[in-house]
Amino acid sequence: MREIPQISEAEYEVMKVVWKFEPISTPEVVEKLSKKSDWKPNTIHTMLARLVKKNALQARKDGRVFIYTSLIEEHKYVEQKSKSFLQQFFGGTLNSMVLNLIENEQLSNDDISELKKILSKRDQKEGEK
């Protein structure tokens, strides 16, 4: 499996647009990102070029525009970043993170109820195997 490139937070915003709408042209990326950020078109062009250079995106020329498709899958990127986050801040263990959130009252009662439902469904699936 090839290594997933390091992507900045801003580049991640560009990737989310590409993942959602790929294949997508440069003007379409600019239009969609301009609606939710104050980035100038040149900034977006620069980020697209960086992502191509990092092998996160593939660009092909179609007439006068480039068409972008991702070279990494969103779920694989999120999985890798999640593991990295857990390792960096919680020694790689999910229970340490959840305990920290509970102790610091970061989880609402609704959050805790939702977690219980998720775990209950998982237990039911495990029981069916």
From TrEMBL:
Keywords for this protein: DNA-binding, Transcription, Transcription regulation
- What InterPro entries does the record point to? BlaI_family, WH-like_DNA-bd_sf, WH_DNA-bd_sf
What is an example of a Pfam family matching this protein?
Penicillinase_R
Q: Which domain of life is it from?
A: Bacteria
Gene Ontology annotations of biological process type = negative regulation of DNA-templated transcription
Example GO molecular function: DNA binding
Family per similarity comment: Belongs to the BlaI transcriptional regulatory family.
Name listed for the protein in its UniProt record: Beta-lactamase repressor
